[in-house]
Amino acid sequence: MTEMSTIRDVAKLAQVSVATVSRVLNGNGYVSHNTREKVAAAIKQLNYRPNDVARSLFKGRSKMIALFVPDIMNPFFPELARAVEDMTTQQGFTFVLCNTDDNLNKEMAYLEALKQKSVDGIIIVSSTMTAEYMENFDIPAVALDRIIHTNISSVTVNNREGAKEATQYLKDIGCRRIAHVSGPEHVSNARQRLKGYLDIAQKSEWFNYEYIEQGEYNFEGAKKATQILLTKHPEIDGLFVANDLMAVGAIKAAESLGLSVPDQLSIISFDGIKLGETTSPALTTMAQPIYQIGARAAEMLIKQVEQNEAQTLVEEFSVKLIERDSTRKKGENQ
Amino acid sequence: MTEMSTIRDVAKLAQVSVATVSRVLNGNGYVSHNTREKVAAAIKQLNYRPNDVARSLFKGRSKMIALFVPDIMNPFFPELARAVEDMTTQQGFTFVLCNTDDNLNKEMAYLEALKQKSVDGIIIVSSTMTAEYMENFDIPAVALDRIIHTNISSVTVNNREGAKEATQYLKDIGCRRIAHVSGPEHVSNARQRLKGYLDIAQKSEWFNYEYIEQGEYNFEGAKKATQILLTKHPEIDGLFVANDLMAVGAIKAAESLGLSVPDQLSIISFDGIKLGETTSPALTTMAQPIYQIGARAAEMLIKQVEQNEAQTLVEEFSVKLIERDSTRKKGENQ
DNA sequence: GCCGAATATGTAACGGGTTACACACGCAAG
DNA sequence: CTTGCGTGTGTAACCCGTTACATATTCGGC
Lengths: 334, 334
Fold this sequence. Notes:
2 copies of one chain form a homodimer.
Chain A: H1 7-14, H2 18-26, H3 33-46, H4 52-59, E1 64-69, H5 77-90, E2 94-99, H6 104-116, E3 121-124, H7 131-137, E4 141-144, E5 154-157, H8 159-172, E6 178-182, H9 188-201, E7 212-214, H10 219-232, E8 238-241, H11 244-256, E9 266-271, H12 275-278, E10 284-287, H13 290-307, E11 314-317, E12 320-322
Parallel strand pairs in A: 1-2, 1-3, 3-4, 4-5, 5-11, 6-7, 6-8, 8-9, 9-10
Antiparallel strand pairs in A: 10-12
Helix pairs in contact in A: 1-2, 1-3, 5-13, 8-9, 10-11
Chain A binds a DNA duplex (30 and 30 nucleotides) through helix 2 and helix 4.
């Protein structure tokens, strides 16, 4: 392996100054046609590639964008990550992935480390980060999936409205007692989904606060919560579960109690991850445009970084009902 | 937001030279106790953090490690990614994720880009990369899950042996005709799994090359392959599927043909991803220590990078049978 | 009391691009 | 013919740590 050549090597070979080479490289300033050719030839001959680190040092920007997610092993996040990676790479950025475990200390440590590396911006899915901390680091950021503060750009979905639709759907197919397995209280979208459930449920004469049981945003928590719910209240025949992963737990819970889904219990959830298509029964769910929101967040961030636009953008996408097999069909008798 | 302070600011405030500050920062060279305190105070007062880009420029290394995976949306990879991220972050590296789609051009483009950023090393899951190309880039690398070449360090599992065990297991529980839905031929571990199947199957009087059908490493391909297999050969009562994701497709295929799993058809697969626990029936599978191999690959790479060890290490982990509900229980009559 | 090693600190070059500024030439307008 | 702008190119400072090398002081050993 030969040593890496530098811009000075190119300059020497082409018999011009480094400034001229730099101009050719970046396509700015004046360079005569003839000189440009000479430089191009030298670059080719040496197989020269500019050193991005040197570039970053001068510019103070590194062409890197980071994504913070609680845990890439949660099946909601890979699609988001893929979207962000596609978009960032396409625009010439390098993609850094950080698993935060929803732990503020980890988030802060990542921010610190990334700032030292002159990272251009971050896309962050977080329930613990605050606007004050973010401001301290002064890195362009876009919140994704969960809102951090009104002064930080965000891309989310209409969680409350989607939850309303989900709950209403259960009513429409004939469910008489509809319960909710909610997500963790400290996560904004979980609160919104709970509100959406309440918007519909509270208007019903059968409503009872005991119909709400908190699971975490995971399989086990939801399974337990569902077991409690169904044991205490065998009259429940409809369940709105805060996300798909939890719904899988809910199905297992129903199974363990000998209840058949969807015959005795209809389950609808939220997110629309691939996993929901492969379970038995396949999940009826309010699907988010996961890839799109990830891609859009990346797009927003890149614009913010490149155009130095400071304005805060807030975008909300719509979720869409996907009817599969975890809910009774409308009109079927029970 | 105040301007970032530099080492020269610290030096001025502490009334010492930049060299001394650097020595304090890195804990090398001689610094008197008194001076060390003064510098520490100045650093604290200015909230100074060294600029990693400048450091990288001088050192020619960036404290970044990249992971190449075909597609993070394939549920096998998030756990691997998590393991690598945990290990790299713990050692002070920044983690870069690259989705290659098993496309050599993309891999080359990433290598090029990462080299320009002085990435310290890469961990690569690839079926298309070759040793020659890797050598051209001269970046320390560890192959993961799939072997690239004997002169590149690798961490894999004993695919062939595991496949043998899986096939033997189907025999042991009483399957009379065992077929294999194989992975793509260009992937080394898929070839190994096929060989393992053949090791057992070819010794059986019923063996027939038509009992092998190639699916891709995905849901749809496996579903189709299984449908073909079961339609042509209704006598099949055991299926070794090349991975868990494919097994989900195989179950769906069996379902679509009115076959009950495991009563009429036992299915065993490979990988041991979380998804396999949540499907109905839950998958019997040869589980890889996914997190461990990811973590080990990262560990090996970091050692290689930090100690500048050039030796090639080849490690193979063992897979472990996990009996769940997609296979008949031993001794049960059919 | 002298010498070499250990300790302590500073100066300046270096890593590899980028760009402000200076300079030179050609050509058109006045 | 001069002024002035557009074009073309080079020199050197700059981004910010790191470290080789030089210098100075202290201390133990003989």
